[in-house]
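Hello Y.,

Per our agreement to keep a running log of every chain we model this quarter, I'm adding this entry. I've kept the format consistent with earlier entries: sequence first, then predicted structure.
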Amino acid sequence: INKFELIYQEVWGLLLAYNIIRREASQAAVAFGRAP
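Predicted structure for the entry above:
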């Protein structure tokens, strides 16, 4: 495993976490009848 792979994996993980948080937030907003 090289440095580039580590950086790539970290960026991918951050993007995934960001998207999951955004999805949860928008679902919560819809559940409470508010705009996301």
